[in-house]
Write a structure and sequence with these properties.
This protein is mainly β and 198 residues long. It contains two helices and ten strands; from the N terminus they run αββββαββββββ. β1 and β2 form a beta hairpin.
Length: 198
C-alpha cells in the first residue's frame, strides 16, 4: 500500500504548477510552430519626415542657417574696388551690419564715388543706423557720396540694423565714379539678399 503522501485521487485535477507524464504509449503533442515575423524595418510617412528633419537640423546648424552668416561680394573696375559684406542669414530681432568698402585701386585721385543702397532692402529692417549719413534719399535709394579718394585710400559706408521681416529681403548696392577729364565715368551694381529666421 503506497504511503499517504503518494496517493492520488483519480478525479483530482492537477494544480497550476503540477506536471504529469503522458500515459504509457502516448506521445505528447508537438509544440506549435513559431510565428513568421517580417524582419524588415518599415517606416510610416510621418516617421520618415521626422527622421529627415532630425538629420537636417545639425547639418543646417553647421551651415550657419540658424545663426548670423555673412556674405562677401567684390566688384569694380581698373580704378575702384567695391567690397560689400552683408548678412546672408540673420535671426529675427537680432542686430547685424552691412558694410560697403570703396577703395581707389588706380594711380589717380577719384573725385567722387556715388554709392546707392536700395530702399527696398533697408525697409525690411528696423532701427537702422547709417554711417555716414546719406547725402540724399530718393524714391528708390539711399545715396552716399564719397569724395577725393586718393590712390590706395578706402572709404566705408556702414548700415547697422535689426531684422524685422521674416523670409528673404532683397536689394541692390550700386555705384558710379567720376574723376578727371581723362577718366570716364564708370558704374556697377551688386544684388544682395538676406534670409531672416525666427
Amino acid at each position: 500500500m503506497p504511503p499517504e503522501h503518494e496517493r492520488h485521487d483519480p478525479d483530482e485535477r492537477p494544480g497550476p504548477y503540477e506536471v504529469r507524464a503522458a500515459p504509457a504509449g502516448v506521445e505528447p503533442p508537438d509544440p506549435p510552430a513559431a510565428p513568421e515575423i517580417d524582419r524588415r524595418v518599415r517606416f510610416r510617412f510621418g516617421q520618415l519626415v521626422g527622421l529627415l528633419f532630425v538629420a537636417a537640423v545639425p547639418a543646417m546648424g553647421l551651415a550657419g542657417v540658424f545663426g548670423s552668416s555673412p556674405s562677401v561680394h567684390v566688384a569694380g573696375d581698373e580704378a575702384v574696388s567695391v567690397r560689400v559684406t552683408y548678412p546672408r542669414v540673420q535671426r529675427h530681432k537680432v542686430r547685424d551690419r552691412l558694410s560697403i568698402v570703396v577703395t581707389n585701386t588706380g594711380a589717380a585721385t577719384i573725385e567722387s564715388v556715388e554709392v546707392r543702397l536700395s530702399n527696398a532692402y533697408l525697409l525690411s529692417f528696423s532701427d537702422v543706423a547709417l554711417t555716414p549719413s546719406p547725402a540724399s534719399v530718393d524714391e528708390t535709394d539711399h545715396v552716399f557720396v564719397l569724395t577725393a579718394l586718393e590712390p590706395g585710400e578706402s572709404n566705408t559706408v556702414v548700415a547697422e540694423m535689426q531684422a524685422d521681416d521674416y523670409w528673404i529681403s532683397r536689394g541692390t548696392v550700386s555705384w558710379s565714379r567720376s574723376g578727371s577729364d581723362s577718366q570716364a565715368t564708370r558704374s556697377g551694381r551688386l544684388d544682395i539678399a538676406t534670409l531672416t529666421w525666427p
